[in-house]
Each structure stands twice: as structure tokens, then as C-alpha cells.
Amino acid sequence: MNRIEVSALCDELVKLIGPGPGTAPTELQRAEQITQSLSHLDAGIGNAARESIGWFRIWHSERKWMQYGDGQLRPILSASIQKIRVVASRAPDEVFSSAT
Fold first, then answer.
1. Are 38 and 12 in contact (CB under 8 A)?
2. What is the pTM of this model?
């Protein structure tokens, strides 16, 4: 995996936010697959990916997201994806050359 692929996966995560919160098992499953693949790159990217999937799980649980509301949770979720991008952009090249 390289930085371009990480960026593409982050773009996909943004699309998985969709129009609003609620139960969407397919989207949540895909978000989990993406964050799992990112978590293997290095500790920083892995931590950011795990944080993001935590927010995705809240986003896809009606009971949990109602504690935040769409207006608060959407920016948090978007920021968690942006954090993955930033951490990946700052990671040394070796992180990507050693990833399988």
C-alpha cells in the first residue's frame, strides 16, 4: 500500500458517511475492512484508523449517535478520517515500502 492508496481509502471512508447517521451494516462492514487494512501500516496510522472506526460504529448505531446528533458527530467523523490522511502524509516512506 502507498500514500495514493491510503488517500483513495480515505475518500471511500468519506463516502461511507453518507447522507446521515443510522444503521447501515454494509457501509459499516466496509469501513471496518478499510480501517483494518490501514491499521497494519504503522502505529500512528493504525491508531488513527482505530479511532475512526470507533466513530463509524457510533455513526451506525442509532442509539449511540443520538447522544451526539448529526451536527456534532459528522464533523468528528470527518476529522477522524482527515487525521488518517495527515498521519499517513507524515509517515516515512519505509512505512509504505514494508507494508504488504
1. no
2. 0.90
Domain ranges of the chain: 3-92
DSSP string covering 8-75, please?
A: HHHHHHHHHH-SS-S--HHHHHHHHHHHHHHTTT-HHHHHHHHHHHHHHHHHT-HHHHTTT-HHHHHH
> pLDDT tens for residues 58-74?
998 888 888 887 789 99
Q: How far apart are CA 66 and CA 63, in angstroms?
A: 6
CB 11 within 8 A of CB 97: no
Distances from the Cα of 20 to the Cα of 1, 4, 10, 26, 40, angstroms: 30, 27, 18, 15, 29
